[in-house]
Amino acid sequence: MIETIQEMLSFAFINRALLVGTLVSLCAALLGVSLVLKRYSNIGDGLSHVAFGITTIATAFGLAPLPIAIPGVIVVAVILLKVGNNHRIKSDSAIALISASALAIGVAVTSATTGLNTDVCNFMFGSILAMSMEDVIISIVVSIIVLILFVIYYRKLFAVTFDEDFSKAIGLKTARYTNLIAILTAVLIVVGMRMMGTMLISSIIIFPALTSMRIFKSFKSVVISSGIISVVCFLIGIFLSYLYNISTGAMIVMVNLIMFILFTILGKIIKE
Amino acid sequence: MNVIDIKNLSFGYFSEHDVLKNVNMQVKEGDFLCIVGENGSGKSTLIKCILGLNKVTKGEINVNGRIGYLPQMTEVQNNFPATIEEIVLSGTLPDNIKRIFYTKEDKQKAKETMEKLQLYEMRKKCFYELSGGQKQRVLIARSLCATDKIILLDEPVNGLDPKIVIEIYELLQKLNREHGITIVMVSHDVERAVQYATRVIEIKNGQVTKDIAASEYGTGGASK
Question: Do A126 and A193 touch, CB atoms closer than 8 A?
Fold first, then answer.
């Protein structure tokens, strides 16, 4: 096993993937706690489809996808959360609507231009080979920003997530924190999508939080354990993916699923 | 001294001022005020105006001091991982909103408040595993951390069983009498609430229709 790990680490692309993956997994889990508790679990899924749509359009026009996808997805994320506060269209229907439309546009553009080639396949299901130096830099910058903001706003995020009305009454600008979460999630999805794939990126946002909530019961312990679970699942996932030559994104999600099941059983045992 | 002073307040969510019409009321220091009224009478809107969540365009609201608010419980809280301590501590946020971490004073204040409400022993317990009455006590503790003067409660006994309701009212009465906390409470549960309150204000169609001592309520107290 140690030999396999040594062999893995000798590849530059795996080192890049390990770095990006660890950072993205950690941040995704932190944001995931807020999103899951606020009942915005679906937003990650919707945004990843939007990211796919924008990326394919950018690629079709021969443009670099990241600089276009990041602002585009941010705009959609903020709109979706606004709708959620509005209640006229329920936010889950709004997400379903936007997500399906974006996916459809993406697929239509692809089939009209390049066809379903490897690039598109990589967008859909992720590729560990897709990590460029540019991705590494962007993901490091984004992750550091997420981590710093999370620590700075930790108390307020707790208050706003637990009780929005109370937070408003004590003078917190609750919309600001919701927007912040949406923007960070949007950026993270675009960055993580290359490796995890459009179809699977949202799972690393929601899985760790749900898993840790099976056992942990304070906000702080859920936040910390989600981060740890997420990184551990990622590392196990990427190792198994290398070992058995299985798609990395899929493997990571499956490890997360197994972890969730284990924690659920463990939680039941502890309760009794 | 008036802690809340409302003069000629009219409010509507659209351009017309039709939800609250020319409301005048004062809350005095030491009051235990119960605001009663049917659904849609404008009670919740009035609360939001007092808290500054609705922007008042016509009339005037003066609040002297900080209000500790106790909103209705939401669905989100049903399986939210949070300990009693974490929740009560979040009530101290307005003291130092710009800081990153809680200070020693914040933690001390939270501790004293939890002791006052017999929550300290179980401070590590998870909120959603508590009984309805205990949950309400936690939220009262949080609101007390946010203020030392006045708390405003929105339907605090909704959905609780009668024994617990009385417990909550007795706790509020104690806070009011022994600790000098002014209490403003919105309630459906008129009959029991008036036994503990000192004053009752009734709202109908956005207007104050009664503003009387609690002892006069139900005895056909004079309409205003």
Answer: yes
What architecture is domain B31-44+66-216?
3-Layer(aba) Sandwich (3.40)
d(CA B42, CA A122): 56
Highest CATH level, class, for A2-266 = mainly alpha
Asked whether the beta carbons of residue B124 and residue A169 sit closer than 8 angstroms, the reply is no
Taking the C-alpha atoms of residue A91 and residue A80, their distance in angstroms, rounded to an integer, is 7
Q: Are A36 and A230 in contact (CB under 8 A)?
A: no
- ipTM score here? 0.88
Q: Which two tokens stand for residue A137?
A: 């830099």
- 3-class secondary-structure state, position B153: strand
- Asked whether the beta carbons of residue B77 and residue A163 sit closer than 8 angstroms, the reply is yes
In total, chain A counts a number of residues equal to 272
C-alpha span between B37 and B33 (Å, rounded)? 13
**Per-residue pLDDT reduced to its tens digit, A88-119:** 666 778 888 888 999 899 888 888 887 777 77
**CA B173 to each of CA B33, B67, B167, B195, B213: distance values in angstroms, whole numbers, following the listed order:** 11, 17, 10, 10, 15
Confirm if B170 and B116 have CB atoms less than 8 A apart: no
A218: nearest CB among B71, B82, B102: B82
Predicted confidence band at A86 (pLDDT cuts at 50, 70, 90)? low
Strands B199-204 and B32-36, sheet pairing: parallel
Helices (H), A113-173: 118-125, 133-152, 154-162, 164-169
CB pairs under 8 A between A and B: 81
Q: Domain residue spans in chain A?
A: 2-266
pLDDT-derived band at A84, boundaries 50, 70, 90: low
Nearest to B71 among A38, A161, A165 (CB): A165
Domain ranges of chain B: 31-44+66-216
Cβ contact, residue pair A155, B90, below 8 Å: yes
| Encoded amino acid at B7, one letter | K
